[in-house]
Write a structure and sequence with these properties.
The protein is 53% helix and 10% strand. It is mainly alpha-helical. The chain has one domain.
């Protein structure tokens, strides 16, 4: 299991990011082992929507669609975590 934070997710969904290709490759190679903490989802959507980061609401929607299609696995954070 790989706990994935926001950086690689933002880069993978935003083609304007300098690390886009590297993060797409990493996610593609490891997607069955990745888990995303639920707390990261809102922050990823915010950063993908930020026009100052060359983002758009369409990028955030694409990220949410990947979650809805079970392409990305989101886990709930518990007090124990």
């Amino acid at each position: 299991m790989i706990l994935c934070d926001i950086g690689p997710l933002v880069a993978a969904f935003n083609r304007a990011d300098n690390d886009h290709a590297r993060c797409v490759r990493f996610l593609a190679e490891n997607w069955t082992r990745l888990v995303i903490p639920s707390l990261a989802v809102t922050e990823v959507c915010h950063l993908l929507s930020d026009p100052l980061r060359r983002g758009s609401s369409a990028l955030a929607a694409e990220f949410c669609a990947a979650i809805a299609a079970d392409e990305l696995r989101v886990i709930e954070v518990t007090p124990h975590d």
